Amino acid sequence: MKLTLLMTALLILGSCDSKPTANGRTPVTPSPDNSTVTSPGKLPVTGYEVVASYKHDGDAFTQGLFYRDGFLYESTGHYGESTLRKVDYKTGKAIQKHRVPKDFFAEGIAVVGNEIYQLTWQSGVGFVYSIDGFKLLREFRYTGQGWGLTFDGTNLYHSDGSQVIRVVDPKTYRTLRLISVNNENGKPLTKLNELEWVKGEIWANIWHSEEIGKPNHIARIDPTTGKLLGWINLSGISPKDTDRDDENTMNGIAYDPEGDRIFVTGKNWKNLYEIKLLE
After folding, report:
1. Comparing C-alpha atoms, which of 240, 198, 187, 250 is closest to residue 220?
2. Superfamily of structural domain 39-277
3. How is 18-55 classified by DSSP, letter by letter?
4. pLDDT tens for residues 184-199?
5. How far apart (Å, rounded) are the C-alpha atoms in residues 220 and 205?
6. What's the pTM?
7. What are the residue ranges spanned by the domains of the chain?
8. What is the CA radius of gyration of the chain?
9. Which residues pair with 220 in a beta bridge?
10. How far apart are CA 243 and CA 112, in angstroms?
11. Contacting residues for 45 by C-beta, under 8 A, at least 6 apart
């Protein structure tokens, strides 16, 4: 009995190790108040069809993306190069650009009413702008890292590079609850990055999803339980977008609910794709 308890304790301690990822990112994992383990087995994998391809700024290190009233809004990263942009997606041109202070590495964005929320990576500081003119309205604070952000009409969903997504009150930025995402084998699905709210689901880019044998895959997540609902397989969508390095991963999902259109791109990709999912 004592031996069994000792082995269990060692397994639990071993699962808590946090290992640095490429470019120094070390996901910070809060303890969730609920954790849903996906039952082992196969999940639906959805294919795609490219409806249209548009130009995308190859210098844009895309960290966040959303669609609003005929335009794309994009957050780009890197210290000294981070921006918030309003983009004419048909031409790829930024028709409005705000430069984030050089001490911040910008990350995910989401629109709440007529305001844009923007995360930063390791600073624990977020910014709120007016959607018209990008006027800085206020700042907010959070613990841990900022990666992806999306909005369901009531609450924000904040990823930090771990398997945990925080459900957040946009008025106070207080964490209301946590959801934990596991893969089809019941193991934590980490590196949840840019997020998008699509038809009652959270869609998430996985940073370096090729490392788990799923290159350019998007995870479909139940926002209530964190259960993994399936995958969208976008393998092969961008073979000629950029000279590849470790950072040019797929990152950027935008959904147009009125037109039922999906847009995807990646960090420093030269193209933005409008796609249609296959049955």
Report:
1. 198
2. TolB, C-terminal domain (2.120.10.30)
3. ----GGG-----PPPS---PPPSS---EE-EEEEEEEE
4. 999 999 999 999 999 9
5. 9
6. 0.84
7. 39-277
8. 18
9. 203, 230
10. 35
11. 230, 231, 232, 233
